Each structure stands twice: as structure tokens, then as C-alpha cells.
TrEMBL record:
InterPro entries (alphabetical): P-loop_NTPase
Region (Disordered): 19-61
Taxonomic lineage of the native organism: Eukaryota, Metazoa, Chordata, Craniata, Vertebrata
Domain of life of the native organism: Eukaryota
Organism from which the protein derives: Poecilia formosa
Protein name according to UniProt: G domain-containing protein
Annotated Low complexity bias: 19-28
GO biological process: immune response
Annotated Polar residues bias: 36-51
Length: 358
């Protein structure tokens, strides 16, 4: 039976994860005569080489590459993604044509949930930019705020290509999780949003929890009012600097959300370009980056979530023009979310009639 979160007091959130340290043990070398450094390679006398008799006879030096440090980029992708115009068009068509399998629900509602400045509003604007064919800022985005720029529950219809009809997807923006009860959402209010009790445009206040006295409060929400999937947003560049209560808070939050029957959870790792120069230069390197892969593992540990639920994302920030690879990465993230939305309707909705929820 679902927990009655309305009887629970508001719970504030603290975030963090202790930074990890790494050490490097240099490779040991045998002790023949010290080599002479020439450019970026070692030049070693041919008398010390046993694998090239031809070079010995000629008396030519043999060059051996120098170890230059840790490998930062893999030769092949650790997830298979096609960075092509065809793949972009295919993903756009899939998102544009998506409709919930439940006939009583015209659009799937996905809640973006994460710390202040984790990139929730930027993700919404970036996804809509792909369909608009140009970079636009539909959701208001803060730039130098330490508190959440978004204060209300705002739902954004994702429109099809060139501003066509709405797709079957709505992305819901909400106040960011802060560092305490006076700066961020409470657990009670988050669960109220997921259950569908909170009206559109409601302004959150830690000292005024959502309840039956709230203006516009939805007493008996239908399936269409509910949240059908939660997407956690985590900033890759801040994984090791969040407040140390962050991990336990997210795990507690995920446990409560899981108790709401059938609400699946995924995660988006934002700002991956800020932790990997190769990815910043070319987004198609994201799945070759060891830095990104390592940070995804840290995000998984932080959220208590398998990395198979986590996808990297680069939002449009200072750019004025779209980039093919960035578009493919954003659309892949949306497609990932919709897979779990589908599971919600397949596993849950058929067991209910009249779309009424408890």
C-alpha cells in the first residue's frame, strides 16, 4: 500500500559526496644506460635491441614511443550511438510520433528533479531547440544564482518539428533541491507533485507545504495528472563537491518514489563537456571518454542507481547554432526517458479503469 506522505513532515535536503583521490605509480624501468630524449620519443642504441636484426646491421637507431600519461580516450565507444543526420531524423520522428499507450492519457508527464543549477531548465530549452531548428530559451534559465531560479511547477509541451502540434511528451520543471528546508523542496511536496495533487503554476514555499487548503489543489488526481517517470538531473562537474548528505538524501527520495506504484526513475548526467576536453571539442567523443565513464559510475553510486539508467547530456548554453552530435545526444536522452514511460503504462495503467488513482 502506498505511503501516505501527506502525514509526513516536510524533509529538507542536503547534498554531497566526498571527493575521491587517485594515485599514480610510475612504471619501473630496467637499468641499462639512460636513453637520450629526442623530441617525443626515446632513441636507444641498436645494440640494446633484440627484435630487429635488420636495424642492427644498418646501425640505425630504433625509436620507442614514450609513455605520456593516463589514457583519456578509448578507441571505440562503450555505448553504440550513430552520430549521423539519419540517426537524428530517426530519433526526432520517434519522439514526435510518440503517444502513451493508455488512451485516457494524451501526454506523458516527466518530472525533472535535481539540485539547484543542475541543468533542468536548460535541458527543456535544448530539447525544444532541436525541434525548432535553432537555439532557443523557452524555459527561463538562471546563470549566476545559488538558489533555484525556478520557483513554480511548470509544464512544457514539447512541440514537433518547426512548431508543429505537441508531441506526446510534457517535461515538468520544478524548484531545485537546495541545501536545507529554507532553500529547496521538501519530500512531502515532491511526492505531492508525483501523485498529481499540485496545480500548474503552484509556487513552492518550505513553510507552506502542499495540502488540501492549497489553491487549486487536486484532491482526486486522474492518471493524466500524475507524473509517469522521474528523471534525476546530476551535474557531472559537481559530483565530488556536493554537500556530503547528498547521497543519502537521493537514496531516501528514490525509495519513497519507488513506493508509488510503477513510477520509474532514470538519470541525466549534465555538463559532461565540462569534465572532458575531448567531449567539449566534439560531443561524439562522449562514449569514448574515460572521464565521462568514471563520472557516470560516481553518479550511479551517488543515486543508488545502475549506470544502465543513466545517460550523459550536453545542453545548449552559449551556442547560437545547433550541432548535429549535440542534437543526437539530447534526442537519445529523450528516447531513453520514453522507454521507461512506456514501461509505466504497460505495467500499471492496464490494471486500472477510469484512470482514477488512489
Amino acid at each position: 500500500m502506498e505511503k501516505k506522505s501527506e502525514d509526513k513532515p516536510g524533509v529538507g535536503f542536503l547534498f554531497g559526496l566526498p571527493s575521491s583521490s587517485s594515485s599514480f605509480v610510475p612504471l619501473s624501468n630496467p637499468s641499462p644506460p639512460a636513453p637520450t630524449l629526442t623530441s617525443s620519443r626515446f632513441t636507444i642504441s641498436s645494440q640494446l635491441q633484440n627484435d630487429s636484426t635488420k636495424e642492427k646491421k644498418k646501425g640505425k637507431p630504433v625509436e620507442i614511443p614514450v609513455f605520456t600519461g593516463f589514457q583519456s580516450k578509448l578507441e571505440s565507444q562503450w555505448r553504440d550511438v550513430q552520430w549521423t543526420e539519419e540517426q537524428k531524423k530517426s530519433l526526432m520522428k520517434a519522439v514526435s510520433s510518440y503517444r502513451p499507450s493508455c488512451k485516457d492519457v494524451p501526454q506523458a508527464r516527466v518530472l525533472l528533479l535535481g539540485p539547484v543549477r543542475s541543468g533542468k531548465s536548460s535541458f527543456i530549452s535544448s530539447v525544444q531547440s532541436v525541434f525548432n531548428g535553432r537555439v532557443t530559451n523557452r524555459a527561463m534559465v538562471g546563470s549566476s544564482f545559488n538558489t533555484s531560479f525556478t520557483k513554480k511547477l511548470q509544464s512544457f509541451n514539447i512541440r514537433g518539428q518547426n512548431g508543429e502540434d505537441n508531441t506526446g511528451l510534457v517535461l515538468c520543471d520544478i524548484m531545485g533541491l537546495g541545501d536545507g528546508e529554507t532553500t529547496g523542496l521538501t519530500l512531502h511536496d515532491i511526492l505531492s507533485v508525483i501523485k498529481g495533487h499540485v496545480p500548474e503554476g503552484h509556487k513552492f514555499s518550505p513553510d507552506q507545504p502542499v495540502g488540501t487548503e492549497t489553491a487549486g489543489y487536486v484532491k482526486t488526481p486522474s492518471l493524466r495528472d500524475r507524473i509517469h517517470c522521474v528523471a534525476f538531473m546530476v551535474d557531472a562537474s559537481k559530483i565530488s563537491s556536493y554537500h556530503k548528505g547528498f547521497g543519502s538524501t537521493f537514496k531516501q527520495l528514490r525509495e519513497y518514489i519507488s513506493e508509488l506504484v510503477g513510477v520509474h526513475q532514470v538519470a541525466l548526467l549534465t555538463h559532461v563537456d565540462q569534465i572532458c576536453p575531448e567531449t567539449a571539442r566534439d560531443v561524439s567523443n562522449v562514449y569514448k571518454s574515460l572521464s565521462v565513464r568514471d563520472t557516470m559510475n560516481k553518479a550511479g553510486a551517488l543515486l543508488g542507481m545502475s549506470t544502465s539508467y543513466i545517460v550523459p547530456v550536453k545542453n545548449y548554453a552559449s551556442e547560437l547554432d545547433l550541432d548535429l552530435n549535440t542534437d543526437v545526444l539530447l534526442l537519445s536522452a529523450v528516447d531513453h526517458i520514453l522507454q521507461y514511460v512506456d514501461i509505466f503504462f504497460q505495467d500499471y495503467a492496464p490494471r486500472h479503469t477510469g484512470s482514477k488513482m488512489i
